[in-house]
Every structure is written in structure tokens, then in C-alpha cells.
Amino acid sequence: MTKPVFRFAPSPNGRLHLGHAYSALLNDALARRFDGRFLLRIEDIDITRCRPEYERAIVEDLEWLGLEWEKPVRRQSEHFADYRSAFQSLQGRGLAYPCFCSRREIAEKVEAIEAQSGQEWPRDPDNAPLYPGICRELSPEEAMRRISSGVPHAWRIDMQSARTLHPGPHIFMRFLLSGEEEIVTADPWRWGDAVIVRKDVPTSYHLSVVFDDALQGVTHVVRGRDLEAATDLHVLLQKLLGLPTPRYHHHDLILDPGGDKLAKSRRSEALHELRERGVTASEIRQRLGFQLIPST
């Protein structure tokens, strides 16, 4: 049997905080428990926000915590051609269509539908309105004319076509820290026609993460509970691309004193700030429970 493979995959768009430390330490601890491999992947497809200095800071913080990982480290920004190829396999089977809409246009369309129907338009797990299909019915000729004219556009998965090709059920294995596993049925349709290629880069988080997990042989995806719902869409993309589905575990989030999850956007206290205050790596490990692995 091949060794299990775990990974920690941060984005270098800010400094790591305690929530990142917990996820990295948990992946490392599980890899050690199951005699597996531990990878670091840099998810830097957001070329406008990701910076080399943040990547250097990630490495510095993880080394300070005492973590080691296999080299070389995969940087997603160096592999756009891979993701473009994966997307083209979907596009070639009629599983994606270009979308020229702005967020404002989508919001206005949804508001008009709600005003006419008197009912609230459905929303995805991130509480964004499902795409109302404005561009789905464009003719191929009109879509190509707009693309040739340089109109900015994303690409959306065509859930109607995907459901026809792979109606499901779509299942994956959830593993618990106790070592037990349970079967989960995914519901990718609740995401609607999600964006799988952004306007600014030839991929998206959803597309690149499933491609890289398969390429790197990741067998166990351990990440925060805030990404649990995204697994439904990822399982569908794996099926459409002919990729294996890893086992998943979504851990609880580290919260601030107000009960909100730690986030770079809210300038949650970073690991380097804790270090500057004299907090040691050993104290961080003890605070997060990594003298011993949690058993449940």
C-alpha cells in the first residue's frame, strides 16, 4: 500500500495566524501518526494579492513551529498551463460556458426575478445568489464574438450538462481523527453554475485544488470547516475530470474572543506578532493541543 499523503496549502496573501498553525500542525501530526507524507503547497493563483514576502513569511512561521515538508514545494502560479488543460477537457465536452456578467449585473437580475416572483432567489453555501443563467443561453457565435472582442469573461460549470453526464449519487469518505470513517453523499448542485475559471487567471480555487491534490497523490485532505461545503463541488469536478477522490476531514476553526473565525482580512493577530511578544513555538503547540493528537 502507498503511504497516505497530507498537505497544508496556504495562500501567500497575508501572514499566518493561529488558525493556519492549527491546520498545519494537524496535517503534520496525522502524517506522522499514519506513517505518511506531509507536503506544503503554495496556492498563489491570486496574482494581484499574493506576494513573495508573504510566501517567505509562511516558510519562516512553519519552520519556527518545527515543521518539515517535502521539497520541492509546488507553487500554483507556475502551473497555469496544467489548469488550462484540465479546463479545456471540460470545455470540450460542453461542461462549461463563458460568463460576461459583472457582480452588479447578476445582483440586478436576481433582484428583478425576486421582485417579479415575490420569492427569494436561492443561494449557494457561501450565501451568494445562484447564478441566474444570463449567459448560459448565448449562442456560440455571440459568445465567440464577445471573447474575440476582448470582453472580460469567466467560465462557469454547466450544472445541467454535468448532471446529465454524472447524475450521482456523488459520495466521499469523511475520516475522523479517531481513525473511523463514514460515507457522505455530496450535493454539488447546490452550488449552481459555479465559476471554475476566473476572469483574471486561467483557473479557480476549485479547479486548481482538485487538480493538484490528484497530481500530488494527496489521499487525505485536512482543512477548516469553512471549506466543508466546497467539497461537494470538488467531488463533482473529480468525477468529471476522472480524478481520484481523497478522504476528507474538516476541522473546527480557531475563534477570536468575540466568537468569529480568525482571518487575514480582519487582521487577526499573526504568528510573527505572537513571536515578537515573546510567545514560543512550544507554547503555541501546547495552546493548540499538539503535545498529543486529538482522539475524536
TrEMBL record:
Residues 6-275 form the Glutamyl/glutaminyl-tRNA synthetase class Ib catalytic domain. The keyword Secreted does not apply. Pfam families: tRNA-synt_1c (PF00749). Coiled coil: none annotated. Keywords: Aminoacyl-tRNA synthetase, ATP-binding, Ligase, Metal-binding, Nucleotide-binding, Protein biosynthesis, Zinc. One of its GO terms (cellular component) is cytosol. InterPro entries: aa-tRNA-synth_I_CS (IPR001412), Glu/Gln-tRNA-synth (IPR000924), Glu/Gln-tRNA-synth_Ib_cat-dom (IPR020058), GluQ/Sye (IPR049940), Rossmann-like_a/b/a_fold (IPR014729). One of its GO terms (biological process) is glutamyl-tRNA aminoacylation. PROSITE patterns: AA_TRNA_LIGASE_I. One of its GO terms (molecular function) is ATP binding. It comes from the Bacteria. Belongs to the class-I aminoacyl-tRNA synthetase family. NCBIfam families: PRK05710.1-4. This is Glutamyl-Q tRNA(Asp) synthetase. It comes from Microvirga guangxiensis. The lineage of its organism: Bacteria, Pseudomonadati, Pseudomonadota, Alphaproteobacteria, Hyphomicrobiales.
